[in-house]
Amino acid sequence: MFSLILTACGSKKYTVKSDTKASKAADAMANLKSKQLYKFIIDWTGVKYRFGGLDKNGIDCSGFAFLLEKEIYGVTLPRISRDQAKAVNKKSIGNLKEGDLVFFSFGGNNVDHVGVYLNNGFFVHASTNRGVIVDDLNLPAYQRVLVKSGSVN
């Protein structure tokens, strides 16, 4: 006689530690003042990076900032991150508000990456490796290359 014994694996409880990067990013999203911004980010999260891209088939960092600022805040930015950096009033990191821009220089002296500040040290951007994602601005990898932050004129 053949018998089959099934065991449930659902009895173990899994919890997300409240100090993990994922939970902090989720908190940043939950604390957004603009529900339109929340929906915009959710709609774009995971869209892959494509240099020069401006749609759901692929988007680059400046294209993402361009579309977000236009759709959420009604602001028309230049299309290229270097030019976007010239269009902002400089602010210190501690004074950033939801929707402000953060600029990075990964390849030397010129601005070559942009993200949109959310809150509590988090920002959203189109990462070359991970696509559109909410990330921690306080990570050393970003702190080393952060060159400017501010609000649109």
Automatic annotation (TrEMBL):
The UniProt record lists the keyword Hydrolase: yes
InterPro entries to which the protein is assigned, alphabetical: Murein_DD/LD_carboxypeptidase (IPR052062), NLP_P60_dom (IPR000064), Papain-like_cys_pep_sf (IPR038765)
Alphabetical list of Pfam families matching this protein: NLPC_P60
Keywords: Hydrolase, Protease, Signal, Thiol protease
Domain of life from the UniProt record: Bacteria
Segments forming domain NlpC/P60: 31-153
PANTHER family: ENDOPEPTIDASE NLPC-RELATED, MUREIN DD-ENDOPEPTIDASE MEPS/MUREIN LD-CARBOXYPEPTIDASE
Family according to the record: Belongs to the peptidase C40 family.
Name of the protein: NlpC/P60 domain-containing protein
The organism of origin for this protein: Pedobacter mendelii
Source species taxonomy: Bacteria, Pseudomonadati, Bacteroidota, Sphingobacteriia, Sphingobacteriales
